[in-house]
Amino acid sequence: MQTRVLADKHSLGEQAAVDGAAKIRAAVAARGVANIIVATGASQFEVLDALVQQPDIDWTVVTGFHLDEYVGLPITHRASFRLYLWQRFVSRVPYPLRAFHFLNGEGDLVAECQRVGDLIQQHAIDVAFVGIGENGHLAFNDPPADFQTKCPYLVVNLDEACRKQQLGEGWFSTLDEVPTQALSMSVQQVLKSRSIVCSVPDRRKAAAVRDSLLGPITPRVPASILQEHPDVTNYLDRESASHL
Hints:
Blueprint: E1 2-6, H1 9-31, E2 34-38, H2 45-51, E3 62-66, E4 68-70, H3 81-90, E5 99-101, H4 109-120, E6 127-130, E7 153-157, H5 160-168, E8 181-185, H6 187-191, E9 195-200, H7 206-214, E10 232-237
Parallel strand pairs: 1-10, 2-3, 2-6, 3-5, 6-9, 9-10
Antiparallel strand pairs: 4-8, 7-8
Helix pairs in contact: 1-2
């Protein structure tokens, strides 16, 4: 595991995007295609903005997968991660992606997990863009996370700390509006990625960063499992790194 501390979230986003873009290009050069996982939330604003501007990526051979989505939230809601990914990534790449597989949390949840799970098992993931939550979650795997399941996607319950983070980031007007469940990529599926680019800005995540990077590997701190992956680079700003 490598950790890079940048001056601010804009520098963090730029460097994470440069790193991720290099990994995408390398996959295309080696195999003719690239497969990526794309995260959402405030931590990814600068990353995705910089990623879509990186030069010399043949996006037409890139397939993307959605990391997580709320249950019961329509795509028209400002907090919808399908909307987020369309606005901030899919519609902004210079050329249409080969495919992007969105998660839909509005219908049969078990069937949706199976549908996208079947798809991702047909694609070896080259690079996963992820973050770490204030409660240490990885994707929407809140503590205590399931470190054992082999299912690519699952329905999870969101704890109060996670829901308060979503409220604090301005996605919802009240805590009652924040869904209590989500569809999430499993921890083991994230770990199957060849490389992981983990971007975590802001002081409010400093304790979670410390516990994830330096503490014991435990389901109580889901992102601590990243310590076991052979190719993870954490991109922090001075604020998120302040407890290291």
